[in-house]
Amino acid sequence: MMGNLYFRALTVFPPDLIKALKNACDRERNEIAKEKLRVMLEAIKIGGGKKIPICQDTGMQTYFVNLGAKLQVDGNKLKEAIKEGVRRCSNEKMYRKTLSHPITRLKDGQQVSNTHPNIYWDWIPDADYIEVMCISKGSGSENQSFQAMLVPAQGMNGIKKFIIDSVYAAGGQPCTPSVTCVGIGGSFDQCAKLTKIAMLRPVGKPNPDPMVAGLEEELYHAINSTDIGPMGLGGDTTTLAVHVEIAGVHETQNPVSVALQCWADRRSGVRFFPDGRYEYIWEFGGKGYE
User: Fold this and answer.
1) Angle of CA points 178, 180, 185, to nearest 5°
2) What's the whole-model pTM score?
């Protein structure tokens, strides 16, 4: 099942993503950009129909696991199941192995290690089920990640400037139109993690905090006025959505992180019940399907 989750992230695309691409295509005024968006939608249609990835870079995998607080779970077995799923899926589907030693650059061809896939754990109060979400992110977009340790004196204008400057610096390299995922606050490491949490959200679903949602809306319009456009060729659609997550922060700090997810926004999820049933989900706490 955990390998299947990885497989689905590469081949089964969320309805919210398809809707966002269609809406962007309808609004786009630049004919080259419009054609790029049409090609992306066609690639999703063909890749989904043939159950093949639409990108040769099948990425690095991150799993988020939310455990029902009413359950007794062997976390180590679950962790091993996730690792084994990634290893088996990579080998059986003959996906590109991206995992390398950071110094020697050598690969063992298994796509797993003692630290990969990356797994984050959390708990669901009063629940007797488990939810797992998988993100697979290629280097094209992951390399376009940015972080700054701002200070409070730089204020909201400093935050906005860093985010928009980061998008400018990335240009079309993250395979735009991207989903712009932002973390504000927390510690250095927590701030970066917030961007991956933002990535779990359906495309365009606003933050429940109206103030943060307003910032998302403002940044969305600002980024789409940059004329970077699909694949960096110009146009009205540089980002499909801006997702911002925030966390409490030290009074003298204000870290900001920006991670750009590529237009394919590869993610999948599943909910397991104690009686053995399972259903796929598009977001934590979301409606199940299949």
Assistant:
1) 160
2) 0.95
